[in-house]
Amino acid sequence: MDQVVDRIIEREHNLLNLLQDRTPVVETYLQNMTQDPQLGPVPKNDRYFLGRMDLSKSIDRKDYMKPQSMEKRLLGGFTKFFKVEYRPLGFSWMIVADRSDFDREHYDFRYAHREFLGEVRCLVFDVTPRKNAGKGRFLGRIWVEDQHFNIVRLNGTFAPRPRSGYFFHMDSWRLNLVPEYWVPAYIYSEEGDFSAGAKNQIAFKAQTRLWGYGLKNGSEGELTQIRVDSNVRDESPTAQDAPPLQAERQWQQQAADNVLERLQHAGLAAPEGDVDKILQTVVNNLELTNHIELSPSVRTRVLLTTPMETFSVGNTIVVSRGLIDVLPDEASLAMMLAHELAHIVLGHNAYSQYAFNDRMLFSDESIYSNLGFRHTPAEEAAADTKAIELLKNSPYGQKLDSPGLFLKALQASAPHLPALLTAHLGNNISEKGTVTRMSALINSAPALEANKLDQVAALPLGGRVKMNGWDDRIELMKSQPVALTSARDKQRFEGSK
Ligand SMILES: [Zn+2]
Questions:
Q1: Which uninterrupted H or E stretch holds 465?
Q2: Residue of 429, 419, 426, 204 lying closest to 327 (CA atoms)
Q3: How far is the CA of 235 from the centre of ligand 1 (A)?
Q4: DSSP 57
Q5: Where does the pLDDT of residue 84 fall: very low under 50, low under 70, confident under 90, or very high at 90 and above?
Q6: Mean pLDDT on 363-377
Q7: Strand runs (DSSP E) across 70-192, as ranges?
Q8: DSSP labels for 408-457?
């Protein structure tokens, strides 16, 4: 076992070497919890952090959102007696046990047992800091696969606890995304006592996701790839030869292509893939039954982020991963896509400024202040009206109960989920705690029944879209939904382990 421990330590150092020039995207979505007598722990309010991580010297990060906007959110929801300031960096610490001193000098390793994690055969060790090992050392358990002895899971906290703060408890998972390496992908953190009647100073659940390991700022590989792409596009008729209307459309399409390429480069959009085909099918169903023929044809893409949002640029509709996760069925997805299709049909998407490439030259961290696809309230209302018309003519016209129910459930949770409902590129789905998007469908929806187990109005976050953190490709999970046994299992809009 001593040899195994040596190998684990060596592999952990190899992993840090592999990751030292990588700057993955790191996203944390956190919900502060409170007790509901009927539903158990439910979200009270929420926070969102998004940035890029730098693993070269220490664990460091740069944030995508302005400090001010974060500050505003920090002020919400504090009790008078106790103040918690979440430091986003804290949630990313547990991607490794110890950045600088993961060795026998600082830690004792005790073999516990063998165990399967899914289909991966693992050795399990308890890891404790040695006496006088210093502050903020890992304390917990590691799972190590028995082929190369890479750590695949870490569970525990850091110790000793500092006098003026907390180290959170975390469960950190890695995925075998590169041959022979297991890369940090997901961290679940939780603090507080969720049993009935418990009094908590602090009670939250948070999920941290990492992706974009394959992104390399300004690397040669990526530049070549962009050049290859633009050569392919050169085969289409050139703008000079095209009649004016077609030239205008190509110009808008150029803007859309620039925007999506830039978002993908910043780690915010998934490359084109199978999930797009599914979204595309739903859009086609809406178009066919409404006799809509657009050129260039409508395309769809997925944002990799959690906050629920949609937007469109040119004839390309973009939907966030978090929104796809929580939508209960195809009709609800159609509702969200219909709103954007309506903007396209009504000619609201005039973003030709992005056809100029100089407007794409900014740092990844400033992307939210350089790109924006927001419509006026009048355009939003017009798109909603048009979208309902499109839906009623479509195969989804007979299935509008579930989209309505989804919006009703969202309305019930909206006042507690401002961060999940803050769009960063498009329009908000709710304003000041009231759902505004497609809200006419709420009135005709059936009543929300918390105790009715077969009424699934919305799904938890993280249960539908699977992400490959190395190449940012996504797919839908194949797992069958687990049967609910109590109303407390519903976890609408919540993060689950
Ligand atoms: Zn809109």
A1: strand 465-467
A2: 429
A3: 33
A4: S
A5: low
A6: 91
A7: 107-117, 120-129, 137-145, 151-159, 169-178, 181-191
A8: HHHHHHGGG-TTTT--SSS--SEETTEE-TTTHHHHTSPPP-TT-TT---
For residue 128, the CA-to-ligand 1 centroid distance in Å is: 52
Rounded to the nearest angstrom, the gap between the alpha carbon of residue 93 and the centroid of all alpha carbons in its chain is 19
CB 47 within 8 A of CB 419: yes
Token code pair at residue 304: 């990799």
The Å distance, Cα 304 to ligand 1 centre, comes to 19
User: How many Cα atoms sit within 13 Å of 376 on the Cβ side?
Assistant: 5
Cα of 339 to ligand 1 centre, how many Å? 6
476, amino acid identity: L
In the three-class reduction of DSSP (H, G, I as helix; E, B as strand; rest coil), residue 189 is classed as strand
Q: What CA–CA distance (Å, rounded) separates 128 from 112?
A: 13
Question: E strands of 1-106, at which residues?
Answer: 25-36, 40-54, 60-63
By the 10 Å C-beta count (0-12 exposed, 13-18 middle, 19+ buried), 377 is classed as exposed
Distance CA 304, CA 9 (A): 33
Q: How far from the centroid of its chain's Cα atoms is residue 456's Cα?
A: 22
Predicted local confidence at residue 63, as pLDDT? 79
Give yes or no for a contact between 14 and 151, defined as CB atoms under 8 angstroms apart: no
Residue 331 carries which side chain, given as an amino acid letter?
A
Residue 56 pLDDT: 81
The pLDDT of residue 74 is 39
Q: Rounded distance, CA 70 to CA 47, Å? A: 9
Distance from the alpha carbon of residue 387 to the mean position of ligand 1, in angstroms:
10
User: Could you tell me the distance, in angstroms and rounded to a whole number, from the CA of residue 431 to the centre of ligand 1?
Assistant: 13
Q: Which helix (H) or strand (E) holds 188?
A: strand 181-191
Contact 201, 169 (CB under 8 A): no
What predicted TM-score, i.e. pTM, was given to this entire model?
Answer: 0.89
pLDDT tens figures, 147-174: 999 999 999 998 887 776 778 899 999 9
Among left, alpha and beta (phi > 0; psi -120 to 50; other), residue 371 is beta
Structure tokens at 404: 């309505």
CB atoms near residue 324 (< 10 Å): 21
* Element holding 155 (H helix, E strand): strand 151-159
